[in-house]
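Record type: monomer structure entry
Structure origin: computed from sequence
Chain ID: A
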Amino acid sequence: MPCPACGESADGTEWKADPLRWDLDPPCSEAEWRYLADIPQAPEFMARQECAYMNNICRGCYNARLQVASRVRSRIRQQGGLENLKPSKRMQQEFEQAHAFDIARGRAARIAGLQSAGGAALNGQ
């Protein structure tokens, strides 16, 4: 029977309860998973797996997810939650891309397609 977390068949292994679901109260959220995956010290398997809850997982996945559960406690929840943490680089870049073309008061703008001689200086030409 394959492990629901990693998909590998783990014959003769000990099955354990998922620590992200059963050891944390409340369970690890998708936002917490993404925040931990963005930091440089994130475990390698976080890039391959998604945040999903399983009832029983293989011993290898249990050990890896136990590290993630301890990091959720120490890096996120003891610091006051995601609302009190600084955004990661990736979160900042996503925000800047999403709001790159927002109109903001006092922010310089370019006039696209302006062809007059007087407007050339305004357009940076």
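Annotation 1: The chain is about 40% helix and 5% strand.
Annotation 2: The helical segments are 19-22, 30-38, 45-48, 59-77, 89-98, 117-120.
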